[in-house]
Request: fold
Amino acid sequence: MPNFYDVYTVFLVVLVTELLAFIFVLTPLGKIGYEWNYIKNNLLTDLAMTSLFMQWISLLSMVALCGVQRLLHNNISIGIVSYFTILLITYLVSEFMWWINASFQGTESTSQYLLFLSRNLIISAIISAIVLRYFYIQYQWKNKTKALATARVQSLQARIRPHFLFNSMNTIAGLIRFQPDKAERVVEDFADLFRASLTDSEYTTLQKELILCQQYLSIEKLRFEKRLQVIWDIDKIPQDACLPPLSLQPLLENAVYHGIQPLAKGGTINITGILQHQYITITITNPIPFTPHQYGNHIAQQNIRQRLQFFYNSPAKLITSQYENTYQVSMYFPYITNVDQANEA
Reply:
């Protein structure tokens, strides 16, 4: 079931209900025998009364379904109770509307009353079944999407490239005898990287992600020495921003592996960040060789792009560009401080 407290959901229900009211009012006009004067004089009145009647049912049903969602947690129970709740509200509103009409225009026959009531209940039963079925299918689709996204997150988090593992071990082995303090620091940074890759957390903060990136680059800098230069320009972005874990580190790993490593003289990686209109943009720029180089199949980028779209309901994207001997990737996402805001963004 959707969140009926949400303004967008309420607006959507009201809009759909009004469109259905238009359909119900306009449908009889196709019958032979309707005169133009009758249509001109009664169309707006019929539309107003039909809209009022249907909007009452829709709004009262949303209020009742909010209570059903709070009281029940089983999907089947929620579906059954919601269905009969809508029918009950339809019956009560129909009775009320019939009583108002009888008060102003006089009592009509029992057959007309039964026809009015049965028609409303049948229409409500059909539309309610379709709407609840749609909610159920949408719920299943969201669960499937969430499970797929979670599997992809775990796949990326569990992936430590073998070349990085072997190179780091060799770096540590070379430092143990002559620079044991530095070797100990590398081991600690390496342990933090593995700990981050095995975490089950759905989100992290930008501060923690940047610390992880700095630990990764410090390990690589010991291997490449002067060939790897890093320029940070991230003072203008808030450190408490919420984002999926391992969103930046794989991008820096790509910059090192595809940009710095193939170049004999190495190069400089630039990391810049800006906050504009409550959106954060982090851009990573690295040099690339003039000669063709194997850039892989961009699995990490596709994974991060899909996780950003899943994590934030509002626009979030990963943009890549290449200019001659420079490669640039930008991550654009809303500034939020907790995961609940991410789901509501």
Summary: The longest strand covers residues 267-276. The first helix runs from residue 7 to 26. Strands lie at 204-205, 228-233, 242-243, 267-276, 279-287, 317-323, 326-334.
